[in-house]
Design goal:
8-stranded antiparallel β-sheet; mainly beta
Length: about 220
């Protein structure tokens, strides 16, 4: 009996030891949100919605020819109220990642945005990252769920070079064939879905994850 009690106490002491706590939280500590100088202001017409407790002061989004330049802190979506799909649509943007990160992070587009300023926000997002993979997910409030099978490698996604730089053109095409939605990278379709499976109406915009520094050009919505 004493042996059993001793073993149980030892197990509890290991679980609550500083080393054990450090292991469970190491992911958050390895790549914390970085402060951004000169953040907080946005080009006219644009709104930023950072994830969770992210601060807009750590979002620097400026007009810079050709297009815009974005430096983050927190993962965020950026959008304009005028970019609202009311039926079949095609949206696209070219992204240039400009620096190397400690961990790969995704950038891209979102569609079907609803209630974006509130707790019931909804949208579907399509990202690529510097290891040559893509991801499609759905957000409903604070919950997210995978549409693609997690991060999926695809040869059309350009990987970053030794300096961490990569350029990728992303498109969500629900216009060419209104019965389906095609997710494209550099002109190649990487994923296709029936339009009945997605909310195709709503705001389209940009989704970029934390600590990224990207240049964005040719963002547009065609209806």
């Amino acid at each position: 009996m004493r042996t059993v009690l001793y073993a149980a106490c030892l197990a509890l002491s290991l679980v609550h030891a500083p080393g054990a706590l450090a292991q469970t939280s190491s992911g958050a500590k390895e790549d914390p949100e970085q402060p951004v100088q000169g953040g907080g202001a946005l080009p006219s017409g644009w709104t930023a919605r950072p994830d969770k407790d992210g601060q807009t002061a750590n979002i620097k989004f400026v007009t810079m020819k050709p297009g815009y330049h974005l430096t983050l802190g927190p993962a965020t979506i950026l959008y304009r109220d005028k970019d609202k799909a009311k039926g079949p649509f095609h949206t696209l943007a070219k992204f240039d990642q400009t620096k190397k990160l400690r961990h790969s992070e995704g950038y891209g587009l979102f569609m079907g945005g609803q209630s974006l300023a509130g707790k019931d926000q909804k949208y579907t997002y399509f990202l690529v990252r510097d290891d040559g993979s893509y991801l499609i997910k759905r957000r409903d409030g604070e919950k997210t769920s995978n549409i693609s099978e997690g991060w999926t490698a695809h040869p059309s996604v350009k990987k970053a070079d030794a300096a961490g730089k990569a350029s990728n053109l992303l498109e969500i095409d629900a216009k060419q064939n209104p019965s389906k939605v095609e997710f494209k990278v550099n002109g190649q379709t990487v994923h296709t879905m029936s339009s009945s499976e997605l909310d195709t109406k709503g705001i389209v915009g940009l989704r970029v994850n934390h600590n990224l520094d990207v240049h964005i050009q040719d963002f547009d919505l065609h209806q």
